[in-house]
User: Fold this.
Amino acid sequence: MKVKNLVFGSEGTGRPAGDFGLLVLRVGFGVYMAVAHGYGKIPPSEGLIGGTANLGFPAPELFAWLAAISEFGGGILLAIGLATRPAALALAFTMAVAAFMAHANDPWFSMGGRSKEMAMLYLIPSVAMLFTGPGRFSVDAMITGKSKR
Assistant:
């Protein structure tokens, strides 16, 4: 790869370097989502169930489970690149609920207290993965035969 293309190129996933970037993003984001954010929510605590009820969701225990599974299972699926877009959609929905419902009255950035910041930091890569897909270094690409471009 030429230096000019490395610095100014816009190949995205059209080249192995772009797909490697997606791999790093997908694995790093997925592992953090699953382990640091989702794992502790299985099974959902009374606090998570109560918070879900306070948001007005019907069947708050079911929706708390769906959020926990979305965060833990969706993170694992993203990390391995399997069902990437459905996993990203579930995570984007869950993080949008967290940012704009659970933290509706909180500031955008953390000043040591509650804020939308963490939910947004998980929402943004979820949306990116929804649009980009997993790249060629993924189980999805192996299944569809797109890993051999």
